[in-house]
Amino acid sequence: MDLRFACQPGCTKCCDQDGYVYLSEEDVRQAAKFVEMSPAAFEARYIYRTRHQRRFRKPRDKQCPFLESNGCSIHPAKPTQCRTFPFWPEIVERRDTWLRTARYCPGIGKGELIQIGSAMEIAEEQRRAYPELYK
pLDDT digits over 79-104, tens only? Predict the structure, then answer.
């Protein structure tokens, strides 16, 4: 499979897909620090927690509380899930899923060739950050 990807300037199509933004403890710490809040205050305001997972609360009109018209307002501290897209295990391990993702992601198929080993390392980072999603 020929893996090419380069984020396209101004694109937020991955952020507009229906779903949730899951968070590791490290994701929470980094985002809270970036917006100058304590992790506890950040969690109380922005996070929905279940027994095994944390995710951003979804505003009524968008998928993420930090998605603005010009992009991610916490871009330097964005969660692992966002930073590693589209190199999620479920996407890079299946050619059909990679091609289906390319339908909405204009960065897929652009840029330099990415070695499958590098893509799998990024996918593994996703697995480590959110083990409860990859049991």
Answer: 999 999 999 999 999 999 999 999 99
Element (H, E) at 69: none
3-state secondary structure of 122: helix
CA distances, 104 to each of 13, 66, 81, 124 (Å): 7, 20, 17, 23
For CA atoms 63, 4, 84, 99, the dihedral sign is positive
pTM summary value: 0.91
**Sign of the alpha-carbon torsion through 71, 134, 121, 98:** negative
- Residue 129 near residue 81 (C-beta atoms within 8 A): yes
Cα separation, 92 vs 101, in Å, equals 10
Contact 56, 23 (CB under 8 A): yes
Kindly give the residue spans of alpha helices, DSSP state H, lying in the chain: 25-34, 39-46, 80-84, 89-92, 95-102, 116-129
**Residue 34 backbone phi and psi in degrees, to 5:** -60, -40
The total number of residues shown for the chain amounts to: 135
